[in-house]
Amino acid sequence: MAVSFNPPVRTLMGPGPSDVHPRILEALSRPTIGHLDPEFVAMMDEVKKLLQYAYQTDNELTIPVSAPGSAGMETCFVNLVEPGDKVIVCQNGVFGGRQKENVERAGGSAVMVMDDWGEAVDLAKLEQALEQNPDAKIVSFVHAETSTGAQSDANGIWELAHKHDCLVIADCVTSLAGTPVKVDEWGLDAVYSGTQKCLSCVPGLSPVTFSERAVEKIKNRQSKVQSWFLDLNLVMGYWGEGAKRSYHHTAPVNALYALHESLVMLRDEGLENAWNRHAQNHQALKAGLEAMGISFLVEKSARLPQLNSVMIPQGVDDASVRGRLLNEFNLEIGAGLGDLAGKVWRIGLMGHSSRPENVIFCLSALEAVMGEMNAPINKGVALTAAQAVYSA
Ligand SMILES: *Cc1c(COP(=O)(O)O)cnc(C)c1O
User: Fold this and answer.
1) For the chain, what is the mean pLDDT?
2) pLDDT band at residue 363, thresholds of 50, 70 and 90?
3) Closest C-alpha among 273, 275, 269, 283 to residue 359
4) Which of 211, 277, 307, 323 could staple 189 via S-S, CB 3.0–4.6 A?
5) How far is the CA of 48 from the centre of ligand 1 (A)?
6) Beta-strand pair 307-311/206-210
């Protein structure tokens, strides 16, 4: 007979979910109220305001979709892509491939701009694709490729796209709250994110934001959005500004308490301080790993501080190291995906996981496990190197 489920207490340093702050877990357990209760509706308005801050936007249509990041992705594509639309998709990892799939399922055609895994999107290739496809309506890209740890130049992509009169869809699932995401300054038209990466909230919600240009396109569609649940024309009846709220679906009430709490914490910390914290902990982890003799997959200029893809030392068995970290230290780090499987680890320093004690813990645990396996690493130097970053 099943009994209560009591999960182990882990330290989450993979590609997400990240550690959830106790304040957020506490918020989650507050009493459930009706999803049209005036008190709840007032909280929803605060969530929208706080998300505008996180996204650095005045976009009115800034809401959390009631489902994980992948649903935020679908929301962007099913609402903006009409059958026959041509979309230029920049792919440099796993998640760009999902954007292509979304374009095609929405009845559009995808023109691919391909870059190697671990590289940022090449602006020259994008420009060439825009010139060769003057009928393209949308450009999409992944700002922070969690499969590789590479960040692309959102500002450069936006400038090219708008010059060619295209809307821009950006995947900011891993970047939001970890590195700058400036929706208005960068002219991004549709952006989706997730709650379980640098917001350090529980998984299952997807903040999205849409520019006025994007909203115009959605309102003037020739055909109905093929997904009833994700049709923003309907969702806005529930989340819309000032409008009388009408039932569309039952919002995940408690999960939204948690998101509200995580956004209050982000506002209290300040976005810039959050970005700096992610940068500093990355520097310390990097110093420790490099002292150990471990190198990074992504070139310095495109490296994400919140997702560190590092090369597994020669002869070291990927799965047994990760298994021992999990079983002996309750520490989760991420495996490589696709061609990078077995070649890299993905060490996440996202949100509440991005703390000095986690950096030191992860370096110690890696050294302990690999040391015992007689892996080719330098021993006894990583912690001093990491600590030097904090003391500087
Ligand atoms: C995690 C992630 C997603 C998907 O989010 P889910 O919440 O897992 O659906 C999409 N894009 C990127 C870049 C991600 O890192």
Assistant:
1) 97
2) very high
3) 283
4) 211
5) 21
6) unpaired
Number of domains making up the chain: 2
Q: 121 C-alpha to center of ligand 1: Å?
A: 18
Q: Which of 18, 74, 77, 95 to mutate to test the pocket of ligand 1 (most atoms within 8 A of CB)?
A: 95
Residue 139: HSE in the Cβ half-sphere, 13 Å Cα cutoff: 31
Cβ 128 vs Cβ 79: under 8 Å: no
Q: Does any ligand 1 atom lie closer than 6 A to the CB of residue 334? A: no
DSSP character at residue 303: B
Give tens-digit pLDDT for 22-55: 999 999 999 999 999 999 999 999 999 999 999 9
Q: Note down the domain range covering 183.
A: 21-268
Q: 237 CB under 6 A from ligand 1? A: no
Which residue lies with its CA nearest to atom 5 of ligand 1?
69
Residue owning the nearest CA to atom 2 of ligand 1: 173
CA 274, CA 179: separation in Å to the nearest integer? 8
Residue 151's H or E segment, with its range, is strand 150-151
On whether residue 5 sits in a domain, the answer given is no
The answer on 85 and 234 residing in a single domain is: yes
pLDDT confidence of residue 384: 98
Kindly report the protein residue whose alpha carbon is nearest to atom 8 of ligand 1.
69
Ligand 1 centroid distance, CA of 76 (Å): 14
CATH of the domain at 204: 3.40.640.10
Q: Which two tokens stand for residue 34?
A: 């009706």
Do residues 113 and 88 lie in contact, with contact meaning Cβ atoms separated by under 8 Å? yes
Q: What is the pLDDT of residues 208-221, one digit of tens each?
A: 999 999 999 999 99
